[in-house]
Amino acid sequence: MGEVKYVSRVRIERLRGPLRRAELPGEDEPVYFGVHDEVAEHYGVAAPGDAERATTLDYIVAAAGG
């Protein structure tokens, strides 16, 4: 294995329920993750409220498609 070229420095904090805040390289402001629609229903989150946001899965799919 060659030398490490990049180490991602990400910090994720669970605020409450499904709501999480992530500090990502290259972003001046935190990114918030939560649940929505079918995802909230699947996990039994009745009313996500302020946690109704894109999921981590949404970001993974977007990254893979990009």
Low-confidence regions: none
Helix segment count? 2
Strand order of the largest sheet: 1-2-3
Specify the biggest β-sheet: 3 strands, antiparallel
- State Rg: 14 Å
The number of E-state strands comes to 3
Mean pLDDT: 90
- Please state roughly what percent of the residues sit in beta strands, choosing from under 5%, 5-15%, 15-25%, 25-35%, 35-45% or over 45%: 15-25%
Helical residue percent band: 25-40%
Q: Give the CA-CA distance, first to last residue.
A: 27 Å
Domains, number:
1
- SSE ordering: EEEHH
- Outline type: elongated
| Secondary structure category | alpha+beta
How would you describe the overall organization of this protein?
- The chain has helices spanning 37-43, 56-65; strands spanning 11-16, 19-23, 31-33.
- The protein is 26% helix and 21% strand.
- The chain is elongated.
- It is of the alpha+beta class.
- Strands 1-2-3 form a 3-stranded antiparallel sheet, with no helix packed on it.
- The chain starts with 10 loop residues before the first strand and ends with a helix.
- It has one domain (11-65).
- The protein has 2 helices and 3 strands.
- The mean pLDDT is 90.
- The longest helix has 10 residues, at 56-65.
